[in-house]
Design brief:
about 150 residues; 3 domains; three-stranded antiparallel beta sheet; two-stranded antiparallel sheet; 5 helices; extended
Length: about 150
């Protein structure tokens, strides 16, 4: 592999190429640190876990399904306070300067209605346009009726 003269490229005006090389080098550095110091799971591991949890918790009712799933939440949006030992581990992880973001994986329950309703949308328009419905779990008439008192 040829060593790249970033200053020479920058001097010649290859700003985007220089930026791409710098980003690539930073990704390699961050990944190397993260793989060396932390356990990890692949997306395939996560997907298989989600399917396993769903399979173990799925319950079927007349008009809906319920099951548990793994949901990832940015720590910026997480509403609970983690235990002190978890906060300390986060402080330690931040010191390695290898992560761009942090997220919390949490099991949450999901309810799926079997027979939904289909709407069309127009970009920049807040309204939904009724296309079709099947069965009577949710109907356009019920949605309209809820707003009759306005």
């Amino acid at each position: 592999m040829t060593k790249v003269d970033l200053e020479g490229l920058k001097e010649l005006g290859f700003d985007t190429a220089v930026s791409n090389v710098e980003k690539s080098k930073e990704l390699v550095r961050k990944s190397a640190v993260a793989y060396e110091h932390f356990d990890y799971v692949t997306q395939e591991d996560v997907d298989k876990f989600i399917e396993e949890v769903k399979g173990k918790t799925k319950k079927e009712f007349k008009d809906r399904y319920t099951y548990d799933t793994l949901k990832f939440i940015s720590i910026k949006e997480y509403t609970e306070v983690p235990p002190a030992d978890v906060l300390e581990k986060l402080r330690e992880a931040k010191k390695w300067n290898c992560f761009d973001t942090f997220e919390i994986g949490k099991i949450e329950s999901v309810v799926e209605v079997k027979d939904p309703i289909l709407f069309g949308r127009v970009n920049e328009c807040g309204d939904r346009f009724f296309i079709a419905q099947w069965d009577n779990d949710v109907t356009i008439e019920a949605i309209h009726a809820a707003n009759k008192g306005k």
